[in-house]
Amino acid sequence: MATIHTEERNGIITRYVRAQEGIRLYLLPNVPMDAGEIPTERGFDLEGAVSEFPEARQERVRRIGEQYAGRQLDATSILLYAEERGEFDKYATRLESRHEDFEFIHPGLMMARTDVTAFFMRLYADLGVAPAEEAERAERQLRDYGIGVVVLADLGGQEN
Q1: CA angle 145, 146, 151 (to 5 degrees)
Q2: Of 133, 130, 153, residue with least CA distance to 141
Q3: CA-derived radius of gyration, the chain
Q4: Are the beta carbons of 104 and 34 closer than 8 angstroms?
């Protein structure tokens, strides 16, 4: 297990784990706003994605996409992969069943939250479009450290 580091930023004590090069995983509840860039989904064309589906499925895809604002690309791509494999209803139901777990998360944090990432990685792995090891890594990280926010650290040449 990685070491949990503690630092003070602007008078607030924060805890983080060094992930990959230039990435820190800040553990909730305190995430410094000046630590670097928080990844976000910007400018996703939901209507364009919805139009890729058969007309009978479009309203359900639109609703699911709206429920996952901030992760619409992931939600709709999972549904597209599932449609190709004849498992649309199964994966649509899985997405619908977890929406309430994430509805309180601001869309600007959906890409950065480790619990949301673990959920989507598991869906991709179960569809066979991502390595199962990646899903297991995300789930292990969540289990070992709890919910966190990924920050792409701007360290200006400092050690990660």
Answers
A1: 80
A2: 133
A3: 17
A4: no
Residue matched to tokens 């994966």? 91
Closest C-alpha among 48, 45, 79 to residue 61: 79
Whole-number Å distance between alpha carbons of 56 and 130 = 28
| Cα–Cα nearest to 92, from 41, 53, 147 | 53
Query: In this structure, what DSSP letter does residue 20 have?
Result: S
pLDDT tens digit at each of 160 positions of the chain: 578 888 887 777 888 888 777 788 888 877 776 677 888 899 999 999 999 999 999 999 999 999 999 999 999 999 999 999 999 999 999 999 999 999 999 898 899 999 999 999 999 999 999 999 999 999 998 998 889 888 887 645 445 4
Query: Is residue 36 within 8 Å of 160, Cβ to Cβ?
Result: no
Instruction: List strand residue ranges (DSSP E) for 10-110, in order.
Output: 12-18, 23-27, 36-37
